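Example record for the data management plan.
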Amino acid sequence: MSRDTFAPVYNGIETRLLDGDLVNFRVSMTGARTQADVDQYARCAAAQYTLIRGYGFTRHVRTTAAQEGATWTGDAVFVISPALPAGSRTIDAEVTVADCGQSGIPTV
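Corresponding structural encoding:
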């Protein structure tokens, strides 16, 4: 495989409702180029979960990532919301899920 080939393997998503509208997503993948790929996987999971819950928006709170060998893991927290939440890291769930599907990134 050439260095320019991006062939991620998405190993799964674990979702935990922390408190009300605060949700934790744990993701695992191999073939990530950088933490940004892990962040995007968690973002896709959060967007789909938001739609499943009947909401339209989510806001990213934080993501931590770690790499062990070829496997990357991410631990992300998002706030889900029926209306556009305050803050600069808001996500329109419907648009994001569509983008994830076009990019081949699985969601919840």
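Summary line stored alongside the record: The radius of gyration is 14 Å.
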